[in-house]
Design a protein that fits this description.
Number of helices: 12
CATH topology: UDP-N-acetylmuramoyl-L-alanine:D-glutamate ligase
CATH architecture: 3-Layer(aba) Sandwich
Largest sheet: 9 strands, mixed
CATH superfamily: Ribokinase
Number of domains: 1
Length: about 325
């Protein structure tokens, strides 16, 4: 296997996040499904944007958030995702490069617009997303930079890409390139409803192509259509070398073919916004794994990053994660 320039290279939906604090009554009034990601059209996106007063607007997208987290730890990352040649696309590119992530996918001229996710955060810190995928789903196999993927130790893919055939084809192409170059492939299932929509495809992918799987409890239960977490974990460990299952305040489980490692959650004085918790968990884990840390330490770094991001609004770290890790006694 040739040497690597990047710790992790990701393929994902390039999205601008519009985040606002709202009441549960607002969710009911706007018929927003709590704790879920719902796909919407541009008209609905314009309507919700107008109603999201005092919103935070920042570059986002699940895999993109993970790459900025790894960069904050001091890791080297690259990203492939599609934006439009518009103001939001330019903002995404500026913010992403400023975060230290290599991003050179050409913007797409004309319509549709750059993707945006309207994220409603209720007083309990839970987030509910309405996402207009726009240009992000027009990522296609021709956008997959084989040189960038083979330059990374690990390829990271987000399940949301499965919502359109062209993007799904790009996703599969990226995995094939990584495997042929003897790189590791990691996948986040993204959302329970995403799993519900693409269960058979995800099962096939996990069993045949994925080395590291990230899921929360609801997602892993949906993937294997069972009500018992232990049963889902036993199924997963037979087909995937490493499975990380997040359990909110209960911490997480790291599952291998032989072992189950329990990882405690870092305590958070005040949970403000859970947006990006899973993304930053993956960032801490993948940073540790790319730097050959033992799995319990990978899990602890993951928990640290998740705790940082849920302590404030927005899906990306406000503190430098490398400095935070050093402060907490980690070797980074």
């Amino acid at each position: 296997m040739s040497s690597s320039t990047y710790d992790v290279v990701a393929v994902g939906n390039a999205i601008i996040d519009v985040i606002a604090q709202v009441s549960d009554a607002f969710l009911a009034e706007e018929n927003i499904a709590k704790d879920a990601m719902s796909l919407i059209d541009e008209a609905r996106a314009d309507h919700l944007t107008a109603r999201f007063t005092n919103a935070t607007v920042a570059a986002g997208g699940s895999a993109a958030n993970t790459m900025t987290g790894i960069a904050s730890f001091g890791g080297k990352t690259g990203y492939i995702g599609k934006v439009a040649d518009d103001d939001l696309g330019a903002q995404f590119t500026r913010e992403f490069r400023a975060a230290g992530v290599a991003f050179d996918t050409p913007p797409r001229p004309g319509t549709p617009a750059t993707a945006r996710s309207l994220i409603a955060v209720t007083p309990d810190g839970h987030r509910s997303m309405n996402t207009y995928l726009g240009a992000s789903t027009l990522l296609n196999p021709d956008d997959i930079d084989a040189g960038l993927i083979t330059a990374g130790k690990i390829l990271f893919l987000e399940g949301y890409l499965f919502d359109r055939d062209e993007a799904k084809a790009a996703f599969v192409r990226a995995a094939e390139i990584a495997k042929s170059a003897q790189r590791q492939v990691s996948l986040t299932l993204s959302d329970k409803f995403c799993v519900d929509r693409h269960r058979d495809s995800f099962r096939h992918l996990v069993a045949g192509h994925v080395d590291i799987l990230f899921a929360n409890e609801a997602e892993i239960l949906s993937l294997y259509e069972c009500d018992d977490l232990g049963t889902a974990i036993e199924t997963a460990r037979k087909v995937c070398p490493i499975v990380a299952v997040t359990r909110s305040a209960a911490g997480s489980l790291i599952v291998t073919h032989k072992d189950t490692i329990e990882v405690k959650a870092f305590s958070v004085a005040n949970v403000v916004d859970t947006t990006g918790a899973g993304d930053q968990y993956a960032a801490g884990f993948l940073f540790g794994y790319a730097h050959q840390r033992p799995l319990p330490e990978c899990g602890a770094l993951a928990s640290l990053a998740a705790a940082e991001v849920i302590s404030h609004m927005g899906p990306r770290p406000e503190q430098n994660l490398r400095a935070l890790a050093l402060k907490n006694g980690f070797r980074v």
